[in-house]
Amino acid sequence: MLEQELKKIWKNSSKTAQISIETDALVQEFRTKMTHIQKKIKNRDRREIAAAIIGILIFSFLAYEIPFPITKASCFLSILWFLYVIYKFTKSNQQNTPEKLSVPLTAQLTHKKQLLQQQVKLLNSAAYWYAGSSFITNFIFIYGLKNPADYNWANQLAEKLLPLTTTTKIFTLIGLFFMYAFIAWANKRAVKKELQPILKYIAVIQQQLHSSN
Amino acid sequence: MGTSPIIFEQLLQENTSKIYRICRVYAADPIEPQDLFQEVIFQIWKSLPNFKGKSSIDTWVYRIALNVCLRAKIKLDKSNQKTARFDAIHFTPVTEAVDPFEEEKFAYLKECIATLNESDTSLIVLYLDELSYKEIAEITGLTENNIAVKMKRIRKKLFECITPKMN
To answer: B130 to chain A: nearest residue by CA?
Structure first.
């Protein structure tokens, strides 16, 4: 009796609102939304790749212009690093498959968990592949800077911008160290504060679903 | 998008009420049932070209509705926090036709469903919609036996919660 009553209450619960849909107009709105989303994703991808390409151009120019051998070598390392960043972003974007919302609940949770775990792996490893390797190339770059006069090199702008004295080298390296340490910390924090709680929540739901009662 | 407008329109006509019922249960501040409803409809429209007919269309709609609602509940979708409303969907509250006692009873039911965990909530909303265990199994990915065992416990819990309130 109660069961039938509950089902009746449940079925009547949608009667509180009259929902009318203009299908043609709605489809048009959906298309606009889709275009907007696709544009946003494309622009984000383009920005990431463009930043890496700009980096490659700058370091190519520096490698050509700067006469100091160690600094020159670090420029080539930086170029390799930027190429690796492009590869990493492209791979990560390929792995970010769209959500499968029409699959059973259990499969959807498993799929979402896998996507989140990939993100966790990427962010956790950023301390090494992003911050760590950048700092090493920057360190070599700065360490290799010598007295321009010894190499008969005259470039006023470069002399103003590059840390050529021991003191400026030390201060620049300390600044860079803290900057990259902050980036690594921010990534780890995002994993801890944003992704891990969701992963735990998913694990709890999965456990509830698969428990025998 | 290769979605046929006629199929989509028919789908909306047949499923609006059941989608809205599920959205009402899962909506929690700041997300309103309308926000969830339009997200479900959007996802249905997006996924429709990929519908292969391996399951019934009803099962398929329930899957999307549940997955979207659960995703919003566990805050998986950051873009779904508070989205702009689509102008082509009109919600008109039906105040005069709604029996206040009926609404009160629904509020009790919602309260009791809220005491259940996520897994049990998804099962009970399908059960209250009078779906068979076989259909629930297709939607959730669980076995019929598992559902039967779970439903026995969930029903008991729900009745224990709601009986004193109804009296």
So the answer is: A7
